Amino acid sequence: MGEIYPTLAQCAVVAAAFKILLFPAYKSTDFEVHRNWLAITNSLPLWEWYYEKTSEWTLDYPPFFAYFEWIISQVAKLVDPAMLRVYNLEYDSWQTVYFQRFTVIITELLLVYALQLFVDSTHGASKRAAQAAAISILLSPGLLIIDHIHFQYNGVMYAILIWSLVLARKKSTLLWSGLLFAALLCMKHIYLYLAPAYFVFLLRAYCLSPKSIFRIQFVNCVKLGGGIAAIFGVAFGPFALKGQIPQILSRLFPFSRGLCHAYWAPNVWAIYSFVDRVLIVLAPRIGLSVKSGALQSVTRGLVGDTAFAVLPDITPQVCFALTLIFQAIPLLRLFSQPTWDTFIGAVTLCGYASFLFGWHVHEKAILLVIIPFSLIALKDRRYLGAFRPLAVAGHVSLFPLLFTPAEFPIKTVYTIFWLILFLMAFDRLAPASSRPRFFLFDRFSTLYITVSIPLLLYCSLLHGIIFGKSYEFLPLMFTSSYSAIGVVGSWVGFLVVYFTS
Amino acid sequence: MAGHSPSPHKPRRKAKGTGGPSNLGHSTSVESSGRAPSFPLAAFFWPARGSASQWEILPIILMVVGLFRWAAGLWGYSGFEKPPMFGDYEAQRHWMEITTHLPITQWYFHDLQWWGLDYPPLTAYHSWLCGKIGSLIDPSWFALHKSRGIHDPTLKIFMRGTVIVSEYLIYIPAVVIFVRRFSRLSGVTSWSASISLAAILMQPATILIDHIHFQYNTVMLGFVVASMSSMLAGRYLWSAVFFVAALGFKQMALYYAFPVFAFLLGSCFSPRVNVLRFIRIALVTAISFGILVLPFVIGAYNEWKQGIRSKPAPLPLFQGLAAHLDTKAFYYPIVEQLVQMVHRVFPFARGLFEDKVANFWCALNVVVKIKHLPAELLQRLSLIATLASIIPPNLILIFRPRKELLPLAFATTAWGFFLFSYQVHEKSVLLPLAPMTLLLAGSQGLSKEIRAWVGFANILGCWTMFPLLQRVDLRVPYAVLTLLWAYLLGLPPTSFSVYSLDGHGSLKKIATALIHGSFYLAMAMWHMLELNLQPPPDKPDLWVVANVGVGAAGFALCYVWCFARLVLQSDILPKALLGKKSKTKTN
């Protein structure tokens, strides 16, 4: 079969040119965070990495990411040694900016490779669809906004995730899929959210016999267990020898943070807060009591330490329980039907559950849902129907990350470009489903996408004209509530598709 | 990146081996008939072959080229934090300052030492409009006298925005319409036309100068393209109006005046004599010019009526004038306004060439020191050389006023002006590049030969502007945009496929490959030298001079190629001569 055009490499070249042009764009404090980590890993001995706190941006990623920073810092030494000094806070010479931005582009090459593996692993009629999905991930506005403007290294980590997911497609490489995912966990622990799906899938498809769940494949268990232990040993071993594990854990899991992140991630708690805010106005009329202490935090608008005025407060335990429940439901099906498509669906639903119900969720975590979902969004039109509102909501919810006027046209035009191009392409590529469609759901998704236009107009333009600088929380609240409806809607839609296909 | 909106239908049919005709009924073009796209830009449009309509592809192209423009604009502009005079950015901002604060009669007189207005009136009106809008956002950006050299980051965003908006209002619609008309005229499929549209809009030279260096060339170029486009549609009066607008925005549009005149004149006499059309065109042109300067006339007249004489001491030019005119009469201030405008717009008193520019005179100056010759002699030499280079192509256009010859005639004439005329700036290379790049939309526009030559001219053009750009440290966007364009069109240094001989290498093809190859090699070596070596202390300009020499030679080749193609396509030579002529010209 001949090559499908455009190839991933061609897209990567053009995208890289665009990303290099974005070098002088706005960069968030995450840029300084990563510079600081370069400095820490380069200039300090291993056992001081997780204790160093000159900068407020202490190292709070697992060791493999620290090793990754150490490798990069070896090159950074040649570019501008000044960026590697721990006391050189907020240092951003043009060499530093060019270098750090460039490392994001270079490490993202792994994503091109992983996506190519994904396309190559797809055969027959759906190959063109796979190519389109792969390009949509490569050109994702999420990665562009978060990695290349805001500044992070998600591209390389999602590359490892996709690579691992592709390896799970063949029986012979299942082991490597699990090990690669273990390595990914040692790089960024946010992927723990997806771990239940991996656990169930590997348990059923690799550790238990395909014929009977009561026949355990001991050799496979030893291989997988030993491999994972070895990977965790390499990552955490050196620190364990020095007895630093409690310190690392306190860095990785800071439970002192609030329910919602500074900007509301579009999840259930955003809707919950929105309802609470509406109830403040309605409460006196319907005879509910308003907690006066909470009102203060409410009028501040943004929520760091959310206290609810009318509705009951949420504890981390509640979040945790809800997340587990909604992760467990799709996993039951995965256990009974351990195919690759179900596995990807389960990974996506684990991402959904943790994003929607998790404690202190970042809006950036939406990629945990969008990227695995993209791999199966073109399976048939029903999948695409659930994907559509997610694609709109997930990317629109990232807009508040960039608030500077110079980046405004880039984030909006790029996202609109991506949505038009890929929703149009997907629409042509997704085959019809063998099962009946949900009439209502399609209508919902069309209506939902249409509403985004006035919403964007209001948030970016009209609000400023009408209210000026006051009520600044309103656009944020609207954006996240709107996006939350989309994410929840697409979640419900996908749950139905997942359980009926 | 643009336009892969794959259709599920057509490729499936192909896979089954039926290979039916394209469902839109276009004749298959060279590019879409092959099994694989011959250059990356075609690959991006590959899934849209035959199926996607132009209205689906167009918005995507416009968004992508807009994104690249805006991202390029994040880099520094000319004269950023470079006191005392700053640069083109400050000039444009300053014009917004004076036009919004001073009465119209002062615009061409106010403090000429600080970026005095020296562009024609339409630029002044455009500055006034931008200044008014900008003052609504933040009046301090354009505060009279106090805002000089201001480098507020939000102002930069506003100024970048004015360039993009002006371009999307004028240049881009003009190019989109031109490409549609020109490709239909040349029998090119709409799929190929979309590719050439993307290639034209991604042209690196215009992005580098307008969106990074900072200027509004695309407004003028847009009016010129609109004028050409009207010629294609047979709307000759509109073509005259648009051309007056182009001239009224930037005097540089004079480079195109000859072919515009030649074509309009030729179309009045061919295929049959049409005197009425000639009169109407002349009348419309005159009226357009009148409207253009009318605000100045009214302004001057009103001041005369109110008895205001607020102008600074008359300039030397007026002393001669005053002897012949009644300085008290109502028309005197009007004449004074117009004379001053012409004097500002056409600075006859400057030298043969400013700075270093890759044209004939500057290159010749490296070999023979001609700058010490008397100015009058140089002016005369320059005039003769320019006329010699531009008269032949325009004669062809007068006798063969064919629409498909327009871009070639415009390009040839502009090359002639650029190479031989007086007072050329390195940025003027945009003028010949614009119509030459439009050739991509014509018949065989995406063939290897045309891509090779259009690409060669564009990449060489960007390269000659490098000394201008690296002053404000814009090496990165220069490299990115130029290499990206070369990559998209499959040109050196990213690919040499346009020079592949496909088994039957004619002498012409081999010669083109050798000549272009040596130029690309020279450019690459020059970049290596410039990057790694300081020029010797007694010749500080060595790199720039080398750049100028190579550039002028390459541009001369572009002139020859455009002219030869024009001669061949016009069928003006007897068939017997044709074979011999083509060889001698293109080698």
From TrEMBL, chain A:
It catalyses: an alpha-D-Glc-(1->3)-alpha-D-Man-(1->2)-alpha-D-Man-(1->2)-alpha-D-Man-(1->3)-[alpha-D-Man-(1->2)-alpha-D-Man-(1->3)-[alpha-D-Man-(1->2)-alpha-D-Man-(1->6)]-alpha-D-Man-(1->6)]-beta-D-Man-(1->4)-beta-D-GlcNAc-(1->4)-alpha-D-GlcNAc-diphospho-di-trans,poly-cis-dolichol + a di-trans,poly-cis-dolichyl beta-D-glucosyl phosphate = an alpha-D-Glc-(1->3)-alpha-D-Glc-(1->3)-alpha-D-Man-(1->2)-alpha-D-Man-(1->2)-alpha-D-Man-(1->3)-[alpha-D-Man-(1->2)-alpha-D-Man-(1->3)-[alpha-D-Man-(1->2)-alpha-D-Man-(1->6)]-alpha-D-Man-(1->6)]-beta-D-Man-(1->4)-beta-D-GlcNAc-(1->4)-alpha-D-GlcNAc-diphospho-di-trans,poly-cis-dolichol + a di-trans,poly-cis-dolichyl phosphate + H(+). Its EC number is 2.4.1.-. One of its GO terms (biological process) is protein N-linked glycosylation. Its main location: endoplasmic reticulum. Pathway: Protein modification; protein glycosylation. It is a multi-pass membrane protein. The chain crosses the membrane at residues 7-26, 98-117, 129-146, 152-168, 175-194, 214-241, 318-336, 342-362, 408-426, 447-467, 473-499. Coiled coil: none annotated. GO terms for cellular component: endoplasmic reticulum membrane. Keywords: Endoplasmic reticulum, Glycosyltransferase, Membrane, Transferase, Transmembrane, Transmembrane helix. InterPro entries: Glyco_trans_ALG6/ALG8 (IPR004856). GO terms for molecular function: dolichyl pyrophosphate Glc1Man9GlcNAc2 alpha-1,3-glucosyltransferase activity. It is found in: Endoplasmic reticulum membrane. Belongs to the ALG6/ALG8 glucosyltransferase family. PANTHER family: DOLICHYL GLYCOSYLTRANSFERASE, DOLICHYL PYROPHOSPHATE GLC1MAN9GLCNAC2 ALPHA-1,3-GLUCOSYLTRANSFERASE-RELATED. Dolichyl pyrophosphate Glc1Man9GlcNAc2 alpha-1,3-glucosyltransferase that operates in the biosynthetic pathway of dolichol-linked oligosaccharides, the glycan precursors employed in protein asparagine (N)-glycosylation. The assembly of dolichol-linked oligosaccharides begins on the cytosolic side of the endoplasmic reticulum membrane and finishes in its lumen. The sequential addition of sugars to dolichol pyrophosphate produces dolichol-linked oligosaccharides containing fourteen sugars, including two GlcNAcs, nine mannoses and three glucoses. This is Alpha-1,3-glucosyltransferase. The lineage of its organism: Eukaryota, Fungi, Dikarya, Ascomycota, Pezizomycotina.
TrEMBL record, chain B:
This is Alpha-1,3-glucosyltransferase. GO terms for molecular function: dolichyl pyrophosphate Man9GlcNAc2 alpha-1,3-glucosyltransferase activity. Keywords: Endoplasmic reticulum, Glycosyltransferase, Membrane, Transferase, Transmembrane, Transmembrane helix. Residues 7-16 have a biased composition (Basic residues). It comes from Apiosordaria backusii. Residues 1-35 are annotated as: Disordered. Pathway: Protein modification; protein glycosylation. GO terms for cellular component: endoplasmic reticulum membrane. Belongs to the ALG6/ALG8 glucosyltransferase family. Its EC number is 2.4.1.-. Pfam families: Alg6_Alg8. It is an enzyme of class 2 (transferase). It comes from the Eukaryota. The chain crosses the membrane at residues 57-77, 157-179, 191-209, 221-247, 281-301, 405-423, 476-498, 510-529, 549-568. It is a multi-pass membrane protein.
